[in-house]
Amino acid sequence: MDLVLIAIVLGLLAVVYGFVTSRQVLGADAGNEKMQEIAGAIQEGAQAYLKRQYTTIALVGVVVAVLVAIFLGWLSAVGFVIGAILSGVAGFIGMNISVKSNLRTAAAAMKGLQQGLTLAFRAGAITGLLVAGLALLAIAVFYYVLVNVMGLSLSDAGERRIIVDALVALAFGASLISIFARLGGGIFTKAADVGADLVGKVEAGIPEDDPRNPAVIADNVGDNVGDCAGMAADLFETYVVTVGATMVLTLLLLFNSDADVFAGLVALPLLIGGACIVTSIIGTYFVRLGGGTNVMGAMYKGFIVTAVLSVPLIYFVTQYALGDMNAVIGGENLGAVDPGAPIAEEGTSSIAPFTGMDLFWCSLIGLLLTGVIIWITEYYTGTNFRPVRSIAKASETGHGTNVIQGLAISLESTALPTLAIVAGIIVSYQLAGLMGIAYAATAMLALAGMVVALDAYGPVTDNAGGIAEMAGLDESVREKTDALDAVGNTTKAVTKGYAIGSAGLAALVLFAAYTTDLAELFPAADVDFSLENPYVIVGLLLGALLPYLFGAMGMTAVGRAAGDVVKDVRAQFKEKPGIMDYSEKPDYARTVDLVTKAAIKEMIIPSLLPVLAPIVVYFVILAVAGQENAFAALGALLLGVIVGGLFVALSMTAGGGAWDNAKKYIEDGNHGGKGSEAHKAAVTGDTVGDPYKDTAGPAVNPMIKITNIVALLLLAALAH
Amino acid sequence: MDLVLIAIVLGLLAVVYGFVTSRQVLGADAGNEKMQEIAGAIQEGAQAYLKRQYTTIALVGVVVAVLVAIFLGWLSAVGFVIGAILSGVAGFIGMNISVKSNLRTAAAAMKGLQQGLTLAFRAGAITGLLVAGLALLAIAVFYYVLVNVMGLSLSDAGERRIIVDALVALAFGASLISIFARLGGGIFTKAADVGADLVGKVEAGIPEDDPRNPAVIADNVGDNVGDCAGMAADLFETYVVTVGATMVLTLLLLFNSDADVFAGLVALPLLIGGACIVTSIIGTYFVRLGGGTNVMGAMYKGFIVTAVLSVPLIYFVTQYALGDMNAVIGGENLGAVDPGAPIAEEGTSSIAPFTGMDLFWCSLIGLLLTGVIIWITEYYTGTNFRPVRSIAKASETGHGTNVIQGLAISLESTALPTLAIVAGIIVSYQLAGLMGIAYAATAMLALAGMVVALDAYGPVTDNAGGIAEMAGLDESVREKTDALDAVGNTTKAVTKGYAIGSAGLAALVLFAAYTTDLAELFPAADVDFSLENPYVIVGLLLGALLPYLFGAMGMTAVGRAAGDVVKDVRAQFKEKPGIMDYSEKPDYARTVDLVTKAAIKEMIIPSLLPVLAPIVVYFVILAVAGQENAFAALGALLLGVIVGGLFVALSMTAGGGAWDNAKKYIEDGNHGGKGSEAHKAAVTGDTVGDPYKDTAGPAVNPMIKITNIVALLLLAALAH
């Protein structure tokens, strides 16, 4: 059977799993009328927001699609549209499952912790498997159509180029939508959250999720459109870009190999993705408490089962695709280059020799790296370890020391992931050169089904807690949802660390694609990518600046939109004085509508920054110092974005999670508990961490990818 | 007259200015007995701290000096010791002037704003000119002894190598002391400041600088040992490293030039430094209010006079040193390389051709860049502009939004300086290749006398305010010192932005010295510095990690030491209940002693990070991937540190200054003024900004330089 068809079947399996499981989830008890009413309001708000967001993005998308069609041809435009639409679909489904499972999780938590966990995790698993499945299907079906239906030949340089351009355009579509979704959703969720807290907890003195707060529905809507829809679109993008980049690199570097081996190599990333969908589905059934109350332990069980089962399956598909695990690929077939030699030194065909076995080992590195990043993230954001406890302790001496310690932890938290990524780069490069790095990244992303499941579980439990509070359910229900939610803070941070970590590897692959493309499309250009070339330094500095500027814009946007929320809530309290004694109902929809408009408005300019920056830098340096230096600066910009962005994103996401859980740790009765001075300081830290971890930090990941992809498209457009 | 002798004379001129002016300052009215008593306590504490700090550093210094002697010879060890001692002397003098001028400034402010400004600024000018003068003398005298006394010949490769190694060792001595001084002083000042605020303002409800607070003297000591001694050592280091690196680069790259031109070129950076000492001295006399109350305007006058007068003087010394401003140097003399060609591509002798006129233009770029950075810093930290006002406004909605907006501003504030530095790199490189960048950096640092004067003025006024408060002087005196101090926040931020900006340029020069050294010392090594080499990526990532880890350590250290202060003050309040009603006196010395011990203990490990990191990275990569990749990773580490460090340092120093002045802006009566909720939020922001701007941020500058210098020394040691 054709390798790509197998991948398509496995992708469809994920979709089937999604449908079957969602029937189970939707069949569960939906709670009482009050709960349904609240959930209905959340659902309505989330759908209204996504509708408006996607309408706005569609306008940008149509313009970009036309530009892609003009500069790169209609096939690329089709790829762009497929990537864009499916990225949107992934977000839409994630949000829809989430808003329907929140009240059911609250209802299930009435029966017990295990029941609540099962329901919330299943809801997460639907989103996770659908994200991975749709991403795999997007590339596999598109590639299948290009090669098997349209008959583009892998052995023809021109037709191979068409395939490459189309795959890059597909990734561009996914990335462009995902940055809007991540940022728009991130601004929405945190503006509502911060705004609701400021005016509710601080000014009016009413608890979180109190139904008298007009911003409370907006806050819950935010969990769904930011943490769920935005996250799903982001991980869809990460998957498509990583697997796509590995295929593109194979197409660019290994075309001189034996035709069968070459075809198998191009399809292998898809097969690895498919294999891990199977193991992710199996893993979901192992997420159970087993008697205790260790929610994080239950999550680990599921992840470990998935990762361990993936090992033999990846071995099997690699052997199946390549035939002989020990046959040498690359190297002598392509011009005898030393294993340690720099990539593409002599043009497009130089690549270190490697075997299928090497790729297998590199895939294991990817699996291992995922596990290590999960473990590090738990250390930095879990309530059982030094970092979170040090922030909680620092809260005793006030707001200032809480924030100082939180910032210190956020800076520190970059160290171990960076060392892990560096080790991953070195070992996989030693094993199989650049292809090794690509396979490590691919294997990381292959686990996306399971990792996203862990993450998407978070907003569901968060919402369930909100519904339990607003519907006035028994205190014990809220306790259970809080226990589930505390883990949610860690799993949410995990996905972000994982996404940015994989982006670190994927960006290297994309940069290699850039240099290889450059050599192929502009053979006469003698571009000097050496650190000794000042234009390389210029590119690195400008690239590293982008995440800072982007982060500043995201943080400011949240502050501004939250200010609007505060004003609206104050106005509602004034207009309807009966709200506080429950004699009047706040106008929830008005606040939702206001945050919607603010988030949409605020997301546009920062999202365009990574799209326009590579183009501007290229043309400015072109004017000042000629084309070769412009290419060098542009290439360095791509690496500058990743070198700068990795640290900004890691520090923001881990720091934000740590602040949030330090607050939860205090609320659990430590350092004075709820209402103490330490708790007030911890609330400040949590507020500061909010836009860090849910707006600016996670959006850096698609930002890095967009910058890289735009550079690839720019090269293609210049060459056309 | 010998060119180097002229530079020595001009350096001595700065010392003479320092002596004459300090007699004037010390001759001024020293206020009443109460003031003298307080100032005496501050002075005693500061001297005790510096004594202990220098004793500790001396222990480390002796060990390092022995290592330098063993691996690089006794001449390098002598250079190291000179650099180290003079760096310490610069800090010591700065501190001493500061502790003697603070009470005199308070006394002068009793007479009027202009009188206070004159005295405080003169005190700053003494430190500024002595820093610049001593730095110039350190290099000029050492170089003079090497060449004119010991008779080392510029035309002999081996003897030239001895000169290079000795100059690098001199820079190393300066840098090593300066990182300890910056970090130790930074931890001291902010631990005392944060601790005093937390327990005084927040817990006991007594105002800032209240004599009942046992930490109040420690807080004032901190201004002198951190902002003054630490800053002076830092700028001494920056000067020595930048001017030294330019000379080293000349020695390495241009030795094939005509002997007279070569000798002139090597001495030219010293002459430019000397010329700007003259203009800085003249400039100090133009810092006057001229009737109004615009303190920042008075500062600008002095700076602009210095910068404008420097233009013809730099032209003159360049012509004097080189003879013909339009004769081509480099280029064809050295093997005909294109102007835009990468540096050192063909070994040590390839350098783009340039003329004296080109160097002159590049020096002007350095002057311009300094002005632009001052202007940008004022925009981001001054109370008249959007950034500070946006933080003040965000304080209205609470602690959280204050910090969010402050972080957003701190991220944003990196953009314009980066763009300015990038523009400076491009234009100066276009004009004169790498030497152009070196001259832009040298001209920036040549203005150090004036820039440090503006900075050192800050802690003097800060202390004067404290003394006025503690001595119970009339409210109007405190108002005047507050007006002077508000500008101090900006000028302190200016120096940090300036130091890190010049470090951006100097690091490029140091990196070029590294690659040139590498080619000379290991001619057989074919090191690939291309971004396509994964070990380059590994080096960039590890380098960018260093400032994050370093920042985390600095922030944590402040938090920990501040916690100790809080506990001690609480204990004193308990042991001596009469403190609050003035019937008992707090034991100030005990708190000073405690902070001293804490700061010394906490400074060691972070300071060793940049010393050990290059060595560890080299040997780890050597073991894993061989020497050529180890050299590549090490080189990339150097650039990674600057790419990462530039943003960390810029964001921390500007952000911290903005937070501080947002508090001041509210205290001026905006957004509710002192005591309002907005003010409390602004105090939190100020506390957060404290370790940002005075501990972690500024110490990044010497950290970058140390990493680079250790790499150069490592090369030399490996080659020996």
From TrEMBL, chains A, B:
Bilayer topology: Multi-pass membrane protein
Keywords: Cell membrane, Hydrogen ion transport, Hydrolase, Ion transport, Magnesium, Membrane, Translocase, Transmembrane, Transmembrane helix, Transport
Enzyme class: translocase
One Gene Ontology cellular component: plasma membrane
Membrane-crossing residue ranges in chain numbering: 6-26, 54-74, 80-99, 119-146, 162-181, 236-255, 261-286, 298-317, 359-382, 403-427, 433-454, 497-515, 535-558, 604-625, 631-654
Positions of the record's site feature: Determinant of potassium independence: K492
Coiled-coil ranges per UniProt: none
Entry's localization field: Cell membrane; Endomembrane system
Highest taxon above the source species: Bacteria
Enzyme Commission code: 7.1.3.1
Catalytic activity: diphosphate + H2O + H(+)(in) = 2 phosphate + 2 H(+)(out)
Cofactor field: Mg(2+)
Family from the record: Belongs to the H(+)-translocating pyrophosphatase (TC 3.A.10) family. K(+)-insensitive subfamily.
UniProt-recorded name of the protein: K(+)-insensitive pyrophosphate-energized proton pump
Record organism: Aurantiacibacter aquimixticola
Gene name of the record: hppA
